[in-house]
Automatic annotation (TrEMBL):
PROSITE patterns cross-referenced by the UniProt entry: NI_HGENASE_L_1
Cofactor(s), names only, from the UniProt record: Ni(2+); Fe cation
GO molecular function: ferredoxin hydrogenase activity; NAD binding; nickel cation binding; oxidoreductase activity, acting on NAD(P)H; quinone binding
Sites where the protein binds Ni(2+): C64, C67, C358
Residues at which Fe cation binds: C67, C361
Pfam family, one: NiFeSe_Hases
Binding site for Mg(2+): E45, V325
Keywords: Iron, Magnesium, Metal-binding, Nickel, Oxidoreductase
Residues annotated as domain NADH-quinone oxidoreductase subunit D: 118-282, 301-364
Protein name per its UniProtKB record: Energy-converting hydrogenase B subunit N
């Protein structure tokens, strides 16, 4: 029997972002695993402290390129809650539209990466082709394909306002995306290669998911309700009807299927929001606000990977204090590290990929915590 260690990363062809994975194996079965992150540390939270909210919130958008909107939205919500700033309903609708479009492009990016890890280049290219019109839609709304700078304190930027004449073309594009996603879902389930590589692999039961605090689609793939949009933390979603997708198998296939079904639910939300814009007042920004002193306030939202938490306060000089950001990947990675044991070494990177890790989001704060404790 061979016993040894396999080291993957921090740079490897099968990983999108730097991380180091150590697999301790017997023959080709993983007996233990150690995942090390921190390569992308940038100290964003410390940089935010001492800045006025208008500048600091823009900095949060740079935490991650794939989920930039949700970070900026959470950051401006803290100030809006702390200063009791009224937000026009039209601005809230457009914030939701951009977030759900971002969810679509993030999930389809993951599908492409998963298929690449499986060695199925054809399906990977299908996923990226489906994703491209979503990025084009975001570009047409905001002027950018990745970082959209849509929310600002008091509403949204003027360039992100969606005029009524553009709604029909956006609706048509979402409907085409919906059709293509349904075909991708069908092809995934009918492909024996894909199903055999993901079914009953990386099983995370409810006990492990609860112990390591799995969130987002990673938790919902194990049957745990975790959608912040359905838990009264994000009132902006109250006007819309959609389902929280739950699957019970807890394997890689379940975690991927949750996201595929979620894409269809996001399409429902976007279409409802676009129709609702016809009947809303044209006001999308409230300039009549004042930044006042407030103690640290908490806010939550449901990012593509799960629960996002933001907290900061503003002092009497109008500067941010005590910044804290928590993203979903850290706890989801702990879950994946725990479930690696007992599986073949060739499945290790696939299991980690199935939680849709975002290492730049996660690395932004880990060493800040250590520094404050010293």
């Amino acid at each position: 029997m061979y016993e040894g260690e396999i080291a993957i990363g921090p740079i490897h062809s099968s990983i999108l972002e730097p991380h180091r994975l150590r697999l301790f194996i017997e023959d080709e079965i993983v007996k233990d695993a150690e995942l090390t992150i921190g390569v992308n540390y940038r100290g964003v939270e410390l940089l935010m402290e001492g800045l006025p909210p208008e500048k600091a919130t823009i900095l949060t958008e740079k935490i991650c390129g794939i989920c930039s909107h949700i970070h900026l939205w959470c950051a401006v919500r803290v100030t809006e809650m702390g200063c009791n700033i009224e937000i026009p309903e039209r601005a809230n609708y457009i914030r939701v539209i951009v977030e759900e479009l971002e969810r679509l492009h993030s999930h389809t990016l993951l599908f492409g990466h998963v298929f690449e890890v499986l060695g199925h280049e054809t399906m990977a290219m299908r996923a990226f082709m489906i994703r491209e019109p979503v990025l084009q839609t975001l570009f047409e709304i905001s002027g950018s394909r990745i970082q959209y700078s849509c929310p600002i304190i008091g509403g949204i930027r003027p360039r992100c306002n969606i005029p009524d004449k553009r709604i029909p073309s956006l609706m048509e594009r979402i409907e085409r995306f919906e059709e293509k996603m349904e075909k991708l879902l069908d092809r995934t389930l009918r492909d024996p290669l894909i199903v055999s590589r993901m079914k009953d692999i990386g099983i995370m039961d409810r006990k492990i998911a609860a112990k390591y605090h799995a969130v987002g689609p990673t938790a919902r793939g194990s049957g745990i309700r975790s959608d912040m949009r359905k838990m009264d933390y994000v009132p902006e979603y109250d006007p819309f009807e959609f389902e929280e997708i739950l699957l019970d198998d807890g394997d890689v296939l379940s975690r991927i299927l949750v996201r595929m079904y979620e894409c269809l639910e996001s399409c429902k939300i976007i279409k409802q929001a676009l129709k609702g814009l016809y009947h809303l007042p044209k006001k999308f920004y409230n300039p009549n606000y004042e930044i006042t002193e407030f103690k640290p306030i908490d806010t939550y939202n449901e990012a593509q990977r799960g629960q996002v938490y933001y907290s900061y306060g503003v002092n009497s000089e109008g500067r941010i204090i005590h910044t804290k950001v928590r993203t979903p990947t850290e706890t989801n990675l702990a879950c994946m590290e725990a479930v690696l044991k007992g599986y073949h070494v060739s499945d290790a990177e696939l299991i980690i990929t199935s939680c849709d890790p975002c290492f730049t989001c996660t690395d932004r704060s880990i060493f800040v915590i250590e520094k404050k404790e010293v």
